[in-house]
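User: Batch of two.

Assistant: Item 1 of 2:
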Amino acid sequence: MQRMGFEAVRIMFPLTCIVALSSLLINEMLLLNDDFDEWVIILMLPFLYLLFGLATVIITVVSKWLVIGRYKPIEQPLWSRFVFRSELVTCIHETLAIQFFINMLRGTPFINWYFRLMGCKIGNRVYMDTTDITEFDTIMIGNDVSLNSDCGLQTHLFEDRVMKVSTVNIGNRCTVGSDSIVLYDTIMEADSSLGNLSMLMKGETLPADSAWIGSPAEMMDN
């Protein structure tokens, strides 16, 4: 019964928010059409969409802190309330905030603000062209880091029906290539890099000033 309740909310809540916000946005445009010319409304649309996009961010951030609080390294069975709550937060994040607004911020400094609000520890001048982050508080990113398109910082795995959550620590001036995956319990020391389409296996450390590529990642020859 618990799972049915969580799954019902997980399915219905983000989509209901999208329908409601979209309807309100369209209704507001129709109301403005009575008082302004079309070209004025077109100029106002980006600002109106920004307002409704910020509403999805507020809903997602508040939901995360109310439902989960702060993520920490933990092991929980698959059929547990923690996993149900975590999946609910992930669904709101991926279905509501990302689809409605956050995807547009990829590659800009503004996406870092969102992930900081969700609990990520992100340094200065970080380039992030991905949204593939879930257990936000277990992510530590240094300064001048480049997270390229659709790479994933995967802070959990399901092993033998147990959800295991732990940390990913990316040092200063590191690079994670496009479509690469960094698993949990890993450290990328300063100035290390992981190439495109690569995987850093759990529990591994990339030494400083080294370059790695492959799945699993292996050190590149000089």
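Item 2 of 2:
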Amino acid sequence: MAFKTGHKPDTIEEYFLAGRKLPWWLIGCALQATGISTEQTVAITGLRSRLGFAVSSYQLLASISLVIISLFILPIYLRVGINTIPEYLEYRFVRTTRVLTSFLILILYILGPLGSVLYSGAMIFETFFGINKLFFVQIIGLTSALFIIRGGLSSIVWTDLFFVSSVMLSMAIITILGIIHIGGFENFTLKSDGRLHSFRPIDSKEMPWPSVFLGGYG
């Protein structure tokens, strides 16, 4: 495989696009990792325990969108040399639009998902290991920034591979141990109380089935 790891990117293309040499399976793992974080392992898991499997329905539908984008829309962007949404906005309008969009995306990500991900992860370490939440957030933020700045996209995707593998393995172990603890799969289905259904009733106050198509959790 021509793709190299563990070296500092020499060009802008290597830094932001990993030299365009990422294997398909690594890209798939990175896409999967993008949708998995402490939001899923902590918050969404708690929501699933209360509302059931229906919480995952919007993610299953999102996979259809990813396939459509990959097959029909992404090739068009790549043919004209567009790799990001801000690049498209510059191509469609002016460079100022690209700069403003990039700035807004960065600010919104820092103030929104990033904070909740770091905080929910810090809660786990504080609960199980007694590590102060603020200290954990600072260490993780600094460590992540250092290896991302140095390695670019290549360091991110290889970290994603380790992350996805460890999360999938740990979730599988937890699921198996949980089913064994509850007395087997038959008891698991009997005690689920309807939470194994993919869609909730339309009169549900928290997540009626139309919300899956119109707005996620609703």
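Residues 133-182 form the longest helix (50 residues).
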